[in-house]
Amino acid sequence: MDYSKNLNYSLLKDLLSEEIQDYINKNLEVSISQLALQKNPFPDLNWKEILNQIEAKIKAKEKLPTWFSSKNIIYPSKIAVEQTSSEKTALYKSNLINGEKIIDLTGGFGIDTFYFSKHFKQVIHCEHNSELSEMVKHNFSQLNAENIKCISGESEAALKALNEQFDWIYIDPSRRNDAKGKVFMLHDCEPNVPDLLDFYFNYSSKILVKTAPLLDLTAGLKELKNVSAIHIVALENEVKEILWEIHQGFEGNPKIKSINLTKNNEENFEFKLNETAIKINYGEPKKFLYEPNAAIMKSGGFDEVAFQFNLTKLHPHSHLYTSDEKIDFCGRVFEITTVFPYQKKEMKLHLENKKANITTRNFPETVEIIRKKWKIKEGGNVFTFFTTDLKNNKIVLLCTKI
Questions:
Q1: What's the rounded Cα separation, in Å, for the pair 248 and 337?
Q2: pLDDT in tens, 136-179
């Protein structure tokens, strides 16, 4: 995880005073810009640090409710809170693995570590930033996570010094390289997991690696070996992270699992990465239209969607599906009310100067161009899909969301 190397933790003990904590909690509803203009009510303390605690705690309210609702929690920078795992995604990954011992080599603010502690008897949080390590150690004590040990130092040195066998190693490589800036390939991240895999296997046969959602699956598979499963994790239809399960000695094609975590549901879709083409049906729009969630779109399992759900696909490159009978689906479902060719006469009749939600799939014009060209306002109950049919004709589908 990317954490600022210039965070100031020198005031940790002062920030825990009852007076400061009370001030922080009483000002969570006040604008930071408004507070910043006020005179520092604690002249002996760093005012920016106090403001950071307020701003970071505000960011934690929805993302980290356990931390937010606990007393005497100290926060790193607002940006660090934004970049850390959410509790929902941490809970998901913690349910994937279990055992006696796990080491988190890139501990950061400790959200993932905390959730691992619910499934392992012993957990080690390794963090190279000593001040952040102390902060997290304090927070764990406030959260009553007594089975977590915090170690400050470089992860490789920590593994060598401990010289223990772990059921799992967890790594969330930093996507910021001192020389290259923000990077996306695994070998450019810190630590360099592809080069260190054999070293890690000396201490565990099972490794879980978290990467950014922008990492291409094919590129990741070229860099890593022994990948048994890939988990694409989305939160409210936004892909947040990709998890790579690595088992020493594993050979073969990995499973691809997509998960979309919503407020009231989990949308799960799974398939085995296979080089053999799947035979699916293509055809014209029927009564219902299906749009896969973001995790499935990232997985690339477009033919698998048609095969597993027994749906007809509109076009090899549109990734929209249709059926006569409504089914439960991992994504958005619509009832098609009208289908017409993308022509001036039809657009004037159905959409010009009206309000509609617009989605494009395999279509030459962007949503912005379509809105401007036909004076279509955003919003309303009409959902439109601008796409290409099997005969390569540009078509428009008017739908209602189910």
A1: 52
A2: 999 999 999 999 999 999 999 999 999 999 999 999 998 866 55
Phi, psi of 150 (to 5 degrees): -100, 130
Strand partners for 267: 260
Rg (CA), the chain: 25
CA distances from 109 to 4, 137, 315, 326 (A): 12, 10, 45, 44
The answer to whether domain 85-272 has CATH 3.40.50.300 is: no
pLDDT at 180: 60
Q: What's the angle, vertex CA 211, arms to CA 236 and CA 207, rounded to 5? A: 115
pTM of the model: 0.92
With contact defined as beta carbons under 8 Å apart, do 77 and 51 qualify?
A: no
- SS3 call for 233: strand
Architecture per CATH, 12-80: Orthogonal Bundle (1.10)
Query: How much is the pLDDT for 7?
Result: 44
Encoded amino acid at 64, one letter = L
Distance separating alpha carbons of residues 310 and 291, to the nearest angstrom: 14
Alpha helices in 207-272 (DSSP H): 217-223
The answer to whether the bond into 191 is cis (omega within 30° of 0) is yes
CA 396 – CA 378 distance, rounded (Å): 16
Residues 31-44 have pLDDT tens digits of: 999 999 999 999 98
